[in-house]
Each structure stands twice: as C-alpha cells, then as structure tokens.
Amino acid sequence: MFFLHNLERRVTLHPSYFGRNMHDLVTTKLVKDVEGTCSGDYYIIAIMDTFDLSEGRILPGSGLAEFTVRYRAVVWRPFKGEVVDAIVYTVNAHGFFAQAGPLRLFVSSHLIPDEIQYDANATPPQFTNNADMVIEPGTHVRVRIIGLRTEVGEMWAIGSINGDFLGCLQA
Amino acid sequence: MSKTIRLGNRLRYPITIVKLLKKPGDVVKRQEPLMQYSFKWMKTVGDSVRGETWEEEQTSIVNWDSPSDGDLKQWLIKEGQRIDKDGPCFNVKEACSHDIQFQGLCAICGKDMTEVNWAAEERDTARAPISMTHDLTNLTVSADQARRTENNLQERLLQSRKLSLVVDLDQTIIHACVDDTVGDWQKDPSNPNYESVKNVKSFQLDDGPAGVARSYWYYIKMRPGLEDFLKRVAEMYELHVYTMGTRAYAQSVARIVDPEQKLFGNRIISRDENQNVIAKSLQRLFPVSTNMVVIIDDRADVWPRNRHNLIKVLPYDFFKGIGDINSTFLPKRKDILPPAQPTEPVVVNGNGKSKAKDAAPENTAEEISEDTPVTQAQLEEQERELEKQMKDRPLQLLQEKQDKEDEEAAEKATVNSEDGDDTPPSSPPHQRHQVLRDDDTELEFLEQHLTQLHKAYFTEYDQQKFRRRGEDAASIPDVGPLLDNLKSKALRGVKVVLTGIIPNEISVERSEIGQQLISFGATILNRVNREVTHVVVNPQRLMTEKLKQALRIPTIKIVNPEWLAACFSQWAIADETPYLVHVDVSSWAGGRQSSNRISDAEETDDTIKGKRKDRTLRLKPKLNLVSESGETQELDDDSDDEGDSDASDGDDEDALLPDVIEDGQLSPVDGLKTFNWGSADAELDEFLASGSDDEDDDDDEGETQETEGVTDDEPTPSRKRKFEGEEGDTEGEVGTDSDRGSTAGEIAPKPWGQPKKLRRTQSIRGTSSLRNQYVSEDADVDGDGDSSLPTPQVTGDEEDVKLKDLHEAELEAELEAELLAEFNAAPDPVEVGGERDQDKG
C-alpha cells in the first residue's frame, strides 16, 4: 500500500559545495541517497518535497556540514494479505518468482491452483492449465502476499495465486 | 501429514511423566504446555557460611511445551512412565510442513522461518536444507519435496525417453579466452588464423568481477560440430549447463551456444549458485537420485562424488596455451607430463601439442579441503589472470613464434605437405603454421558414447519394467553402473604399465590416469612382465627401468600418453601405430617419429571415426602426410604391429630395433636421393652453435639417476641384443635418420631413450642426425668387444658420460659389461637363455 510519509534524514554536504544554492544541493543529495531504497518495512518510492531544512552544522573534524532534512515521501509498504500485480521472472519446478516493483515474490506450487501445472517441456518452462493460463517469464500476474520478511535494505515475500481473480492478468 | 515430535535432549533425564495436559485431537500451539513431568535433582542445603551443607534430593515438576503447531494425533508416552533418554513423544499433524522456503520464509504458509523459539530444539529453516534450483540458492526445499520434484522429473524424462545430461562449458563444449588478438585476427583476412577464428563469437559481460572485467571481450570458440551435436543429443538427453564461470558468463555463453534457449532453457548453474568453488556436485541439482544423470566434463577432479556418472572429455584447447579461464579457483590441473625440459628445441617441439598431452591429465583428484566460498582474494586472482592474458596476448606471441619458425622452415626444402589446410606445405610440426587449428573431433566420439549409453539405459529400463510389470516402477536403473559397464569393455584385456608419467609419491591407482584406466577396464601393473600389453612412457623421460624391461618383451607395445588419451576418447583400444614410441638405437629416428606422431595423432582424430579396424582407411591420410620415404615406413609399421600380437621372433626384434628401419631400409635410402644436404648442414651448424644441450643433459641426468636409484637391482638383459641389431642396420639407419631429421625440420630430438649411452651421446654431441648416428655406430662397435670390466654403478656411469663425452667408447664398454653382468644374474633363465642363444648365433 502506498503512503505519504513524513520522514527525517541527516544529510552531509562537502565544504566545496557551500554557497548560495546549498539547499538545492542538499535536496538533490537527499533524493539521490534516499529514493528507491528500502528502509526495512517499506520502500521509499519518491520524495515529494522537503518541508523543513535545518541550518547546517559543521561537523567537527571533517568540515562537512550536516543538515537535518524533513521531507515527505511516497512510500510503499507491502502488507500481508495485500494483492499486488507483479511480473514473473523465473519459473522452476517449485513455483515461480515475480517482481512487484522492488519486491521479489515467490509463489510456490502449493499456492497455485491445482489445475495449473508445471510444464518443464515447454521452452521456457511454464505453469499452465493448458488453456488460457500460461505463467512464464514476462507474464503479468496478480498475487496475494501471504508472508513477508524484511532485512535491512531488502524485503522478500511469499505470494499466492490461489483465490478468485488472482493469477494471469492477460487472461 | 503426521510428524513425530521427540522430547528433546535438554530435559533432565531420567524424567517421569506426571500428567498429559492435552488429549489426542486437540489443537496445539507452539509453546503451549502439553504435559507435565517430574525429575529428581540434588540440592545443596544447610548453612554455607558455617560450612554445614549437605545435599538433599529434590523433585521438581515442570511443564513441557509444544515445539510445534498442529493437531495432536497421538501420545507416544503414558502418564507415570519413566523415561531415561530422549525419545518420541507424540504425533502431530502439522498445519504446514514448511517444505519450501524462500529466503527464510515458508513458501507455503508464509511464516517467517528464521524466528527462533526456545520451545523447539531445531530451527525451522533446517527443515528445508536442500537447494536444488539451478539459478537460485535462496530457495530451499525439504527432503520430501526434493524427492517429489525429482520423481516428477524422472517420470517425465522416462516418458519422453530421455536422460539428464550435465554439460560443462569451458574446454568441454567451448573454449574461451580474453585475448584481443583473436579480435584482431578476425578482422584481418590475411592472417593465417583467419579461417580458424572466423566463427569465434565474442561478448562483453555486463557484470563480472568488477572494474576491468567489464571491458573484457570474451572470445568463445565452439567445439567443431557442437551445434549438431547438441541438437542430436538433446533428443536423448535433457541438457543442463554446469560451469565454474560466473552466472553472467554462463548465460552469455549459453546465448551463443543456444540462441533460442531450446537446448538448455533455464537449466544453467554457475559458480555463483554452486556454493562451492572447487567442486561440482550432482547433488546440487539432483539431491535425491542421480540415477538418470550423465555428466560430460573435461575435468574429473571437480566431480569428487559423481565419478560414476561422468564421461570425461578430452579438453578442448583451441586457443593454445590459454587453458580454462574460469579455473583459477580450482586446484591446479596437473599435467600428465612433467614440465618440458628447459632445452630450447625440446620445448619447441613439446609446445605444439603440449596441450594434447594434457589430454589425459590431472593426476590426482587432489582433496583440498577448502570449502570456502569465493573470497575476494580469489576474485582478484582471477582478475589478475584475465588482465595478464589481455596484456600479454599469448596468442600473438605464439603466432609470432610460429611465423619465425615458418620462415626458418621455408629456407629448408621441405617435402611434407599438409592435409587439406590452406597452409603452405610444411615441416611436420605443422601446427606451427597457424597457431589455432580447428580440428577437434571429440564430439563425434562423445555423441557415439552418449547414444550408446542412452540405448543401454532404456534397454535396461524396458527389461526391468517388463520383469516387474504390475508393480509400480519403484526403482529405475542407475546410469552409473551402466556407464561403468560400457566403459569397462573399452580396454578390457589391456594390461598397462605406466612409466615416467605419474610422480612416484602418488600411487598409480589413485592418480587420475590410473582411475580412468581402471574405469575403462584396463589393468594397471606395477611391473613389466609377459602379461603386459602396453607400456605407456613419457617421451621426455625414457630412461626408466620399466621401459628397459619392456623392451625385452616383444609383445609389449610401447606407446606415448597420447595413446591413452585416444583410448579414453574413443572408448576402444586405439590403434597404437601413431602413438608407438620407437625406442630404438638411433633415437634420432625416434625423435622423428615423435614429431610424426604428433601429426598422426591429430590425423587419427580426424579420420578414425570408429573405423579403427580398417587400417587402410586410417592410413590413407597418413600417406599424404609424410614424405615419400616415410610412407613406406608407416605402412611397414602397421604390418609389424599386426604381427606383434603373435609374439613371433621377428617381433622380438621389433621391440628392440626400430622396425621402421628394419623394414623400410630401402625407402629411406631412396629418400636420401632427394635429400637436401645443405639444410642438414645448416641444421647441424645451428645446433652446434646453440649451447642449450648441456642443460638438457643435466636434467636428464637427474631424472635418470632417480629412476635408477629406485630400480637399480632389476636386471636389464635386453641390451646386448639391441646392439647387435644396430650393427646390422647401421647403414639403413644413417640414411633414414638424416633424411628424417631434415624433413622434420626439427632441431633436437627428444631423447627417445634408448640405451642410455646413445641418448647421452646425442644430447651431448648436439643434435644433427648425421653426427649422432655415426657416434652411435662407433659406440656399438666398441661396445661389443670388451665386456670384462667390473660393473660400474649406473649413476656413476652416467656422470662420467656427462663429464667426458669424448670417452664414450670406453663408457659404452663399461655399460655393456654392467649389462652383461646383470644379464647373467637375471632371474628369468629361460627367457634370458633364449636371448643369449640368439646373440651368440
């Protein structure tokens, strides 16, 4: 689920950048540092704006200036039970992997409807019900997240397409 | 699914069950108390300050908490029961068995498996310890799931009547290098290598070992016939790629080899997923059963656990001297031969085909107990290697060297012309002309073997199925024994003695060559006796005791290691003719033979294709190959070989004498007519000028001494006869040798070992064929006369020779005496006696 989230971060700036457009530089650096990262529970998708930029304080010893920036960002936090759209990127006998934006999902064969079976003879291998559902790399699927685990900078999820309106999107 | 939960090791046994808190059928949760038990323990009571303490037995009652979730099915313990040690406690039907886990998550229920719970002794992540997907390591499965998956796979394969084939990339189906010379050659049609490198593919990696690696162009040469090979094999086998390269590399190569991804699909596993940098394991892909899996790889030592499934392939060495660019992590491949001797000429000769000698290489599956993942240092090492290759451009160097030699060769009149290549007619070490030659035929043999194996497997499978009709196919045949069986027929009846090939400190049976020989059904003997059929010698170390013994027995074929390689490749007793080592009086002839053999070896590969028995067919190309005089010799060789097995008297001579000379006497003389004496003179001058011979000598000396030291006490009675034979044939030899020497354009002979003295003479005197022939002749004459001198130490003798080369004649005599002494003391009176009679007569 997407949120607008108020966040705070300390940005340091090298003395060579000190000058009139310092604040712009701080914002640029913030965007560069923060956008697209995963902070444990959520991904920071985009920074909307900064609404508070503190005065710079010179860090003793290094000469870098430290700014405390408070900013508003669009964050995405996947939840257990949430339904997301994803793109399949690997298929193997145990299930398939899909990517929902930055989040990697694994959908095991246990969580795929029984009629959709693994077909290793196809090139590339695919899950298919021999009708309209063909899951192979590149397929768009709708997946319900049933498990999530996070580590610093990374998240993994377990998905399921066992349910109404889940599975292949083109179908 | 029901699971049995045990009490665990942490309880203070013995315990007594006090009360069961849950009934069968109840839903239990983790950490929920399930029962109470009591245990007794000693407590120290009293006044510790005054020291008046004593122990008192206490009984405590404790709750036992459930280590897992699910439905309690059945208690396996009773109230009041006394339990002395860990044992089963109850059966539970678990909600989820966590069979598939992805990065610490159960892929079935979505629970976090990394949570550690004090109630459970075992971590949940341990339930799915097996990683069996090609391209991922963070997807793990339980043994049950692995079995299910594999059963499905086997069923599917059986239905389509296929097996699995795990294919190595580097030097098995392709050869890769990062030498930009290849790129330059590709753009330059005038380059002699242009034809060869024309269809070399190249790519750049988008990842790789950081930094510089990004800018490398990788040049990939597919083994000749690869496309068709894979296409046909893919009808019988499901193909997997298993390489020690990085993932990006493996995928790039797979794109080249299999652009449509029809052959390999996504069944590619690389070093990144292998979890072990020095060994490959089939269990990584097929954790349960490898019954239907065959491997083709050029290295056997990286498959320590799966030798039975392995078909070892001759390494494909297109870019000469490059080796395997992804093998820096692996233990060093050990060459079959010791490093070429420092003498320049020998090295030159050795170079041409040094990699082919490598054919049956890697002496031991050396167990390096290094199970660490790729370290930074290793990565850096690889990068250094690559960088070095980039900078040094070894191929260019090779070609330059080649060109230089070509020029030299051009000056000499040459008779030999090359086969269909567009290279100008040249001297026998023809691979010098273009460094890169595209003449590998291994895949044809390999396809035959694979087809054979596939057929054998499904014959066996059908039989088994027929036998146990009705029962479900509980067991399927194992490909390992079938493969072993097929292989073991290949060299059945061959009894081999290896000499000078495997370092003394390694036992023959444990060496790579030994293991292979045994797997092909050959018998390896440590001593030469009448049973022995082949002696494999190291052409660079001929003065071994075993060889001398072998010379005594006419039925023994003395071959060089390339013969082994050919046998291993063909799975049959390869025709020995091209590989025979002619240990004869004039080692010059041997030297010539050796160079000839090199070309033959390749020729054989080209032409044999299973018609091994049809000698005429096989020989035809050889006629083109060698000089006029050589032709006849070759043919004669063959006829001799055929006779060999009969162990007739004439063959007796063969072992001792150069059959070439004996039979081809006339033709070599004919060859003399066309012989360019000027070039021979030039050659002689050149050699006398070069001072490297002494070094050579020194080296030999050391080796000889070594071997002699080991086997000094063994008799060597065969010498005498040899000399006699020499005398008879000297004239023919002179002609032959000089002729050959010049045709070969060779500078120095590899000491083909012969009677020690002769080799000595040769290397000492320089290497012109003419010169040394005369020397040996002299020596013979002298040597025959005096035999009453005391027997000197062999090693001492050798040293003498080295020091005073001018007194050879005397030394000959000494040696002769020694031999005679040994001869008389020989333990085998019948054989020796017979020989003596012949001598006297």
TrEMBL record, chain A:
GO MF annotation list: single-stranded DNA binding; single-stranded RNA binding; translation initiation factor binding
Predominant place of localization: nucleus
Superkingdom of source: Eukaryota
Coiled-coil segments: none
InterPro entries: NA-bd_OB-fold, RNA_pol_Rpb7-like_N_sf, Rpb7-like, Rpb7-like_N, S1_domain
Pfam families: S1 (PF00575), SHS2_Rpb7-N (PF03876)
GO CC annotation, single: P-body
Domain RNA polymerase Rpb7-like N-terminal as annotated: residue spans: 8-63
GO process annotations (BP): positive regulation of nuclear-transcribed mRNA poly(A) tail shortening; positive regulation of translational initiation; transcription initiation at RNA polymerase II promoter
Residue ranges of every copy of the S1 motif domain listed in the record: 78-153
Keyword terms: DNA-directed RNA polymerase, Nucleus, Transcription
Classification via PANTHER family: DNA-DIRECTED RNA POLYMERASE II SUBUNIT RPB7, DNA-DIRECTED RNA POLYMERASE II, III
Family: Belongs to the eukaryotic RPB7/RPC8 RNA polymerase subunit family.
Entry function: DNA-dependent RNA polymerase which catalyzes the transcription of DNA into RNA using the four ribonucleoside triphosphates as substrates.
Name of this protein: DNA-directed RNA polymerase subunit
Species this protein is from: Cercophora newfieldiana
From TrEMBL, chain B:
Every BRCT domain range: 486-581
Ranges where the record places region Disordered: 336-435, 590-655, 684-800, 820-841
One Gene Ontology CC term in the entry: nucleus
Name of this protein: RNA polymerase II subunit A C-terminal domain phosphatase
Taxonomic superkingdom: Eukaryota
Residue ranges of domain FCP1 homology in the record: 158-336
Organism field: Cercophora newfieldiana
Taxonomic lineage: Eukaryota, Fungi, Dikarya, Ascomycota, Pezizomycotina
Subcellular location, principal: nucleus
Comp. bias (Basic residues): 610-621
